[in-house]
Amino acid sequence: MYKFYYFQILFFSLLTLSAYSSTGTRLLRLPTSRQDEVVYCESWRFSVETNNVENWTTVPTRCHGFVQKYMTGPRYQSDTYFAAEPALDYVKSLSVSNDGKDAWVFSLDDTLISTLPYYELHGFGSEVFNKVSYNEWASLAVAPPIEASWILYKELQRLGFSIFIVSGRDEYLRNVTEANLISAGYTHWKKLILRGHSEKGKLANDYKSSKIKDIVEEGYRIRGVSGDQWSDLFGNSIAQGNSISQRTFKLPNVMYYIA
Amino acid sequence: MYKFYYFQILFFSLLTLSAYSSTGTRLLRLPTSRQDEVVYCESWRFSVETNNVENWTTVPTRCHGFVQKYMTGPRYQSDTYFAAEPALDYVKSLSVSNDGKDAWVFSLDDTLISTLPYYELHGFGSEVFNKVSYNEWASLAVAPPIEASWILYKELQRLGFSIFIVSGRDEYLRNVTEANLISAGYTHWKKLILRGHSEKGKLANDYKSSKIKDIVEEGYRIRGVSGDQWSDLFGNSIAQGNSISQRTFKLPNVMYYIA
Q1: Is the domain of A49 the same as that of A122?
Q2: A155 vs chain B: nearest CA distance in angstroms?
Q3: Residue B18 lies in a domain
Q4: CATH of the domain at A152
Q5: Is there a contact between B148 and A28 if contact means CB atoms under 8 Å apart?
Q6: Which residue of B has its CA nearest to A237?
Q7: Residue A18: pLDDT above 70?
Q8: ipTM of the complex
Q9: How far is CA B48 from the centre of its chain?
Q10: A vs B: CB pairs below 8 A
Q11: Interval A174-194 mean pLDDT
């Protein structure tokens, strides 16, 4: 323990020195030479999943291998369980009315269905997003389900929730998206909301929150939101006037950020 | 790649079976036998840092070793850097007025100063929080600085920000808290806000958001919030009427949750 603090003090002194010797525009330097790649990439992932970083376009070069391993090994799937299981615990604690107005909002890609087959062909987030090639892939309607979300979806339906799916996909993909949802095992959603022509320029936060507002204005009580992007989850608190009793559940996503 | 999908399909089938064979109250089961401890604890940590789980009282038994290793090894410190560095990048992009009304809000414990010396003596979050023994330790005023936050703090002051420190500590700890802040290298904060007698029963979310509201009502523009609890960060969006352009920066904390 004492050894640890001596290291801390030494480290802090070094940092302070380097901070004051800099030109002043950037005081903080990550001690990269002291960090191995795994520590760096785990921390990068922390900053992504907490929304500390915004508007990033590609996975940092030194984390390409880390993200591939994370996505194809057991960790990604395990993390999706840790988004669904607390939701199931929470849902158990709710009393659901029989007026059909208790609602849950899901995002689509990488929340209900997985784009991993696409990203496996495109470097797991190491390439800049290409909407044309992504839409082509989406048209194939082959995205598999994310199991943890599928189980939550089925349980919510069993309990009488109305399910809304809010996606940033363009409206012209409606038929293939419905076909994909069905082939992935999802049925009887209340509404699948896609991005109409007039909403094409909107930022995800604005688009998602306006759609969630519409749902609330139709008289639904949104009891929870599951999404892989913070724009999915912030939209909820905006639309709900920040009622913090409403819960949000973040699915992991370290392959892309939607602004 | 194909091998991976066969595994997924097999796994999904098994899950579906187990889901339907249950009595219905709990459909989702984590495949614990398939997960090693590290995968489980990394996922638990993901669910904590994203606020997927709320109101947890102690670190799960199987993750005691994981949390100790995380806190005393390089990862915790590295994660604090990934809360401060995006904040420094963001701050660079702001134009700061010379009216002194641009403000930043910091939490105290495990944001500006570290309670790790206390938790090292108390099982790194494996014991239920004991306020009496914690307050005794706080009275010693020996909490060291969290270096990344210290650098951010100094840079914000250099740029002309007013700094508010909002803590859930009780008012009677004011003198020792100020002494601790100074010995940890922090000076010239605008206000240190502690929990008064009338606020003792308040939930952290309500307490923090009402204090942030007060700051806004005094004419300050809160440009960012750094905190290790989601209640620190949600308070901001509540008080600001959810202006999503305001940024929040989550510091890691896997030792305790403040409700």
Answers
A1: yes
A2: 7
A3: no
A4: 3.40.50.1000
A5: yes
A6: B242
A7: no
A8: 0.88
A9: 10
A10: 168
A11: 98
Q: Which residues of A touch B83 (CB under 8 A)?
A: 47, 50, 52
Distances (CA, A) of A230 to A153, A160, A205, A250: 20, 26, 8, 7
Unique residue bearing structure tokens 């709900």? A240
pLDDT tens digits along A210-256:
999 899 999 999 999 999 999 888 765 555 554 444 799 999 999 99
> Which chain A residues are closer than 8 Å to B24 by Cβ?
158
Interface test with B, best of A52, A90, A91, A225 (most B CBs within 10 A): A52
The residue to which tokens 């107005």 are assigned? A101
> In this structure, what are the phi and psi dihedrals at residue A34, rounded to the nearest 5 degrees?
-90, -15
Assess whether pLDDT exceeds 50 at residue B104: yes
**Choice among A139-143, A223-227, B16-20 with the minimum mean pLDDT:** B16-20
pLDDT at A228: 98
DSSP readout, A37-67?
A: HHHHHHHHHHHHHTTSS-S--S--GGGHHHH
**Bridge partners, residue B28, by sequence:** none
Residue range of the domain that includes B233: 39-250
What DSSP element (H or E) covers B119? helix B116-120
Tell me the C-alpha distance between A90 and A84, whole Å: 10
Q: Chain A contacts of B4, Cβ < 8 Å?
A: 72
State the residue for tokens 């949390």: B67
Q: How many domains does chain B have?
A: 1
**Chain B residues within 8 A of A11 when measuring between CB atoms:** 147
pLDDT in tens, B163-175: 999 999 999 999 9
Over 60: is that where the pLDDT of A160 sits?
yes
Global confidence as pTM: 0.88
CA closest to B48 among chain A residues: A82
Residue A258 lies in a domain: no
Neighbour count for residue A259 (Cβ, 10 Å): 11
Residues of chain B with Cβ-Cβ distance to A84 below 8 Å are 28
Collect all residues with Cβ–Cβ distance below 8 Å to A175 and sequence separation of at least 6: none
Residues A138, A174: one domain? yes
